[in-house]
Amino acid sequence: MIQKxxxxxxxxxxxxxxxxxxxxxxREGHTATFIDNKLYIxxxxxxxxxxxxxxxxxxxxxxxxQNLLLRDLSNINTVPSHFGAGSARGGVNNxxxxxxxxxxxxxxxxxxxxxxxxxxxWNTPITTGIKPTLYDASIGTIDHNGKMYFWExxxxxxxxxxxxxxxxxxxxxxxxxxxxxxSAATLLPDNKIIYMDSSVDNLTQVYLYDTINDNWSTKTTxxxxxxxxxGASAVLGLDGQRVIVYGGTTDPLNSLYExxxxxxxxxxxxxxxxxxxxxxxxxxxxxxxYMVVSFGLGYNxxxxxxxxxxxxxxxxxxxxxxxxxxxxxxxxxxxxxxxxSSSNISITGAIVGSLIVCALIILLLYLWNKNSCRNNxxxxxxxxxxxxxxGSPNIEIHNHGREAEPLDNEIVHNHGRETIELPVYNHxxx
Length: 430
Prior knowledge:
Blueprint: H1 2-17, H2 20-23, E1 31-35, E2 38-42, E3 45-46, E4 49-50, E5 54-58, E6 63-64, E7 70-72, E8 82-90, E9 96-103, E10 113-116, E11 121-123, E12 141-142, E13 147-150, E14 157-162, E15 167-172, E16 184-187, E17 192-196, E18 205-210, E19 215-220, E20 222-223, E21 233-236, E22 242-246, E23 256-260, E24 265-267, E25 271-272, E26 283-287, E27 290-294, E28 307-311, E29 318-321, E30 323-324, H3 342-386, E31 396-397, E32 407-413, E33 420-424
């Protein structure tokens, strides 16, 4: 009887914690942050509702996007309802969810929120520096030093939050283009942020902000140039040499484009699987070998899943799929200064392994040679003993450069003791 009550209690708790129907509804302007194999979804704007929802999907296990399970954390969420905010994984140990931007939908100084994924708790840290007013932080980008860059596409200020030291910084955006809100952006391997203009009819130009040298540059593109991509997303390919752009308005037929970073040429990549409709105001993350698209506008929930998976491990053909496989994949990010690629690791391992083998061979040769010398010395001493002479270590036998053959009346010096003459036999050795 007790076991039945325990079982019912467990099922009741499971129904409370895993609730797909209550939380999983179409939304835009939410945040999606990947930490410790969990994709945390927070806030957003859904029909007739400014979101306070907070939940995550578990990416440590296989799943099918047609049958998603999530953990609802809305009951512990202390962040005001919001949309259009920016989030990132940062902090001293790179294990904290940071949220800032248009929190509460008021044009006031930005408030920073931190979520501890270990204790499942929120807090409002104290920051220093001048707090900016961010109307749209959705294209905020974090670098590999834990600094979040916020530039809305307009205005003269780039706001930077140092998530390790909790300091706000400001940089001038003189020379930056006026590209409007809701542009796509992502960080490149050379610590530059690439921005896709959402205010023009096509993407014949892209803009680069150098986070190290604090300057802007423009690149003219070629190839199959995509039209305006308002509300699109951009992620870096697994090889660090291409940017994958998904969604946006005005191009319902081709929702996916790829920009080669070596020659800045656009192309429509080859794909297989069921191609989804183009979405806007969604979020895109790279998880393992997948580009993971979450929610957005422009799709029918009865026809498509809220979460889309694009396998980008093969540059020759991407695959739209419903099946997520958490098995680690080899990522050739050899151009990434912050990332040791698998190929580099393999080469390093091969070199280290070869050095170890060589060292072992040298050690074995040394021990064999030392043992051979010891055996030779033992045989010489035995030969001397057979002639009635003690194998004293003070006895020195001289050949004086002659061949090792039986000699008569060879002189043996005993260093202070009586010198005697005796025949010495080397038995054919040097």
